[in-house]
Amino acid sequence: MRWITATHLERWADTRTAEGDLPLLIRKLIVASVKQWPDLYIAAGDSIFKPGWDGVCHSTEKNRLLPAGVSRWEWGRNSDYKKKFKKDFTKRTLETPREKQLNEIFVFVTPRRWSGDRESIIKECQSSSHWKGILIYDADDLEMWLEHSPAVARWLCLELQIMTEQVIGAEEFWKSYTRHAEYVFTPEFVLGGRTGNAERLAGFLTDDFDALELKAASKEEGAAFVLAALLSANADKEILVYSKCVIVSEPSVLKQLNDLQEGLVIIYMPVNDETITMLGDIANHIISIVSNRAKVRSRDIILQIPDSGYFSQGLIAIGVPHPEAYNLSKICGRSYDVLRRLLSDQAGRVIWPAGFDENELIPLFFVQKFDDEKKGDHDAITALSGNDYSAYKSKLKNGP
Questions:
Q1: pTM for the full predicted model
Q2: 73/53 Cα distance (integer angstroms)
Q3: N or C: which end of the chain has fewer CB within 10 A?
Q4: Beta bridge partners of 58
Q5: What is the pLDDT of residues 240-272, one digit of tens each?
Q6: CATH class of this structure's domain 167-302
């Protein structure tokens, strides 16, 4: 998806933030481009002034602009990028033994458009060195790489304040869902002891590309569970999750992503529980989050309510005082969405699901709570709601 152009990148190169973020961009693009985690070293942010190569990568596969084998990288946002290239190339060639050069590739990256004939420069450098290969990437190459890496492109769009409403990055969704005024939800807390659900999801993600439905109390909670499972399984590789996972809600955008890219984890949140159609060959792992009203196949996942013990202990683990944790667990009914509203320092709004009649909640205001094991509660609910007890409970499951 083409959100960022070479012109955007050139303007970005003129900013000071690009100095620390360019290495991070390249790191994310490399991780997003391969199936197997590469042997990768790239210093970014405050670490960019460390001596040595800007980046070193050993990848067993070739993908996009990433060469297979060992590649050594240099880059810079300098306006005189040709001077920067010549300086880096000369220095690194003199420092690197001939034996190493014969088996390694030199890569230079600039976020500016390269003017003139790159190929003649590469041939000239190749004749005066022993590198297995020499590659020069400029703003146009980065534009193409970002077009095929939507999760990374979304991250950079946020940095550059470019609007992209169709796709949400996994990192921004997770931080928005889990960070609150006083507490931060951890992946383990959001998993809520639902190891069976997490294991089935892991099995799906390690199998061939396909689509799966996950039935949850809300679309947001379902998406958060998927991300919690991914982050928990890749505890030391957050960048892998954030670089390869996106969230969409429009079927046309889903199709565009599936046609464009291979190997993503796409969390699909259809507004009205629409089934996935007209995708053709599925080239990604697609997880469609549907509501409790939806009918799903036996191979799909029905997200369980979190275990009460795990939920309460999870609240304590993120810093909620012991007595308050058990009280919050009861009040929110072990719903992460309700808990988020309770913890929010801003007034929230309840969005009623399509087709739900809020008048169905009136009996609850009178009884406050009811017990499945008590016949008297069954009778009271039946009398107040005008419905059979089981039918009333079913209606409540489709509520907010």
A1: 0.77
A2: 7
A3: C
A4: 39, 70
A5: 999 999 999 999 889 888 887 889 999 999 988
A6: alpha beta
